[in-house]
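Exam revision sheet. Question 4 asks you to relate a sequence to its structure. Input first:
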Amino acid sequence: MSQRSEGGFVAIEFALGLGLLVIPVALVVLTLPGWSERQATARAVSREVARQAAREGICDVSVARATAASMAVNLGVPSRDLVVDLACVAGSVLPPGGDVEARVTVAMPAVLLPGIGAVGAWSWTARHREPIDRYAAAP
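Answer key, structure tokens:
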């Protein structure tokens, strides 16, 4: 029997295995926490913006956006990645006993590499509906 040298195939198999299996899995593992963080941020911002509008009783989009920008920075998400909208007429007084809904859309990077940056993106929207106190206008 003759013994053949198969040392050259090991290097090729290692490179292919690393490139086709390990690297994509590592990219997904590095990206998943960023998605979760941005979803949690969008939920928290939508909840707080809706509560603030319901408490004040006025649909003020500029105040909502300022609150969202401040919260986003504090939670580690760039404020440019958030879009805030209130489901009411801007500047109007909210009716007692009604609801106000805040929608926050956040950009989700398809692949997020810490220290390097993001590649591609899609968006995710969080909604929160807050009831307005029906007795707020009572004397």
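Marking note for examiners. Helices lie at 7-56, 61-74.
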